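Reopening this one. Same input as before:
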Amino acid sequence: MKRLMTICLLAVASVLGTSAQSIYDFKVKDDVGRDVSLADYRGKVLLIVNTATRCGFTPQYTELEAIYEKYRAEGFEILDFPCNQFGAQAPGTIQEIHQFCTANFDIHFPQFDKIDVNGANESPLYTFLKAKKGFGGFDANDQRGKMMDGMLRRQDANYAEKSDIKWNFTKFLVARDGCVLKRYEPTEPMSLVEADICMEVNPVLSNIMARRSVRKYLDKPVEHEKLQTVVRCGINAPSGMNSQPWIVRVVEDQKLIADVTEVYKKANAEQVKRDKDFKNMFRNAPNLICVCTPAKGGGELDAGLLGENMMLAAQAMGLGTCCLGGPVRFLLSNADAKFFIDRLDIPADYRLNYIIAIGYPDEQPEAKPRDEGKVKYIK
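Same output, byte for byte:
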């Protein structure tokens, strides 16, 4: 009976956690038992941490407070959830824990009521967080990481395959829009955590880090004024000797996009048939920004800077983009699509280089991993 009850509680927590669409759907209890909606933190960069007062990682409170004081004025908050599940290292009431933390570490960030982060009674918030960012492993090159891995592997040889919180001071970084960005194990250096926080609180850096290639769009054209703003940001990109070796054509004509898509469908019937979501040949985007460079060559670097400026501007305005090369090859090689090229009114000494699909996004793609090992600093 007890086992059945445990299974039921786990199921309820899982449903509550995984059915939520956003971190702002959750309510938690503060240190005096009042309900607090996480929607109150909308627009803030959040670091959510499960803590303990008698852990080897407890000194991280000092680093957390330092980071909090450094970035709180820029819209950063730390949400502290004491948890007694790991070695019973968070004993006492939340009031006792809070008194200990203020007396020993002079913390000023909010502490919430004690919770479970794993198991039958786990907080639905943590069910959600773990579903968004599972366990990524400990750094095998770090001595503390090796120690944690050895300890946990002795308890459960398959521990690394589970998304459970492994120990105290696991952290989740949440962007201003509520997107769960990263999970940090307690052994990861706080300098790394701070570097990511710095990127998120800085609007320029966070915009760069948030941009993704979008391939699903709402059936809603972008307003002319917004397209003008995006292009204006593009043409203000750096250009060698101010030569501006590019021209730009913005397609707002929906019929033109539809007509050339019919040509594409005839030439790629099987491919289109396999794509149940196919609307047009430009990743279904409602608008296009076509960038051209000199036909004799050159200008590609400046055109790249132009395009990146436009895509970042679009991101800052809530728009999605995707840089396309395949449609360009089709347009330049298929004689039946010549009417599209003609309509762009490209001078004879220029050639279509790439197309940026642009529209209101209908997806939020996850970031793909980047290989920082390809970077070397020459000092």
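So the earlier flakiness isn't reproducible anymore. For the record, Strands lie at 27-29, 35-37, 45-51, 76-82, 171-174, 180-184, 247-251, 287-294, 320-324, 350-359.
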